[in-house]
Amino acid sequence: MGATLSAVWSQVEKLILDGISVIPVRDKDDEASVRLAKTPFGSWKKYQSQRVDKSELWALMEFHNTEAVGIVCGKISGNLEAIDVDVKYKTGIDAILFKDIKAIYPELFVKLRIHKTPSGGWHILYRVADGEIPGNIKLAGREATNEELISSPKNKTYNFIETRGEGGYILAPPSLGYSIQKDADIPVLTWEERCSLITLCETYNEVIKVAPTYKPTKTESEYYTENPWDHFNVNCNPVEFLKEFGWEEFKSNPHFIWFTRPGKNKGVSASWNISKRVFFIFTSSTELDANKGYHPATVLSELKFAGDKRKTYQHLVSNGYGIVKPSIEKAIIKKRSLSGDPIPVNFSPAAKEQFEELKSVIQQDHPYGIFWEHSDDEKISISREGVYQVSNGLGFKTFDGKVVQIIDNVVYHRTERYYYDTLKSYIKEEEADIYEDICNSYESFIQKSGKFTIERLPELDDTTVLCDDMHTAYKCYNNGYLVITANDITFNGYELMDKLVWDHSIQKRNYAYGDGGKYIEYLKLAVTDFPQAKKVLGYLSHEYKDETTGFIIVLTEQCPDPKQGGGSGKNVFCNLLKLTTTYTSKPGAQAKFDEKLFPELERSANFRYK
């Protein structure tokens, strides 16, 4: 035994000289005591607080007939900690880990001491200068496979990266095939450097406790094929997303993106698992819990809305997240196109296009909105305010208690029936059943509230209607109107008019200026004083009359006895006159100059006594 022990002693002695607590361990299975190789002899707890010297260790190894030793981790060995990488539970994890350490912390990788295990695993050794080494920590593991569960039902997970710290030990080369892969002095790291390595190792953990996600309500589940939370989780750009909250991308590889929290300029504070699409938080210096996984929408809720799920939901919807069921989109598009309300921004592009097309059709068919409403149970109701709105859009008002309608700048007298029928004709609906339901609801509304609705129509402001004043007369035609003063006559098109015009005041012919004409010839033949007749015509044609200076115009024959002549054209004169002004006439034989005459005159704009 002495000769073989001497062969490994030089390496064991180096460990002792380096201030490491070294203990003997079995280098083969002990069938008698059912102890396996790698296990210590008896209790080794005292070696966690006191180191064995060289002579004692030699004696113990000779006594137990072993060439294998273990390194006690923790404070006794100068704050020694080791990272144990077990590839038998995760093939290829060693290559990924070492590659990432080189890429992310190249200055640390150069300093690390690395041992290789007989099974192909690794021990990464270092000391910590300014921190207390904790006990053994499970850093990364995976779920058990179906085959593993069959053989070992109780083992639900398998860890492939762990630490060996206070209360732990590892075997030292050259024991049992352990070898030195990277022969550097055990480095002394700062606590921050140590935590950086630990955090990186935790990145590979596949057994992640993920913070609870939002559970959609039953209504939301029926509304979406993919709710806004899940939609955001699938489509979120993690780098751009965390930048919004002050996090910065630190490093990345094909499997992970690492982030540095706000307030730090480097280091791993969180990771993004690209395949699982989950953030894992390593720092306790944020609103998020350390050592917990988060879906993007949950991070959004915590960082932007202090965990308020309803506000988060509204934010996601307003930013276009959530895939709505086509049947839901179709129903809402129909309602919103009628009501004029916008559709949710998370509707599909096809639905948005359909909405714009339908809205255009609705705008053409119902330019003033609609006065019927669809309730959630598809019942039709008539909106009183909607009726007023459409009525106003169609130009309906009242004047002296009667219905009038303004079309462009012309005011028409309308019957109540005309008003009701016009509103009904405004209803347009492609689906026959729905059209019938709307019409039935409208008829019921008119039956109950038709008269009241007319009473609620706005009154026509008569100051907005074109009318003669003392100095100016207006004569309207199909193609424009005349502005007549004592000194001038001008013709204007209606496009320049800022007043309304009564339909009955418009002569249903086009105005065409010309000298002379049949009417002038007639007047010259019918009257004895043509210049004076022109003045009379001007007065009669002027709608404005000063109540304080009223006149009666008497038309008489030149012959006192009609049998001696007559037929000079008084009726022709009056019939032509009524083309330019309102007209009332009374045969002279029926006129009595008494108290009944003047009220009658007041009812007439102009009175012609023949």
From TrEMBL:
SMART domains: Prim-Pol. Residues 12-200 form the DNA primase/polymerase bifunctional N-terminal domain. It comes from the Bacteria. This is Bifunctional DNA primase/polymerase.
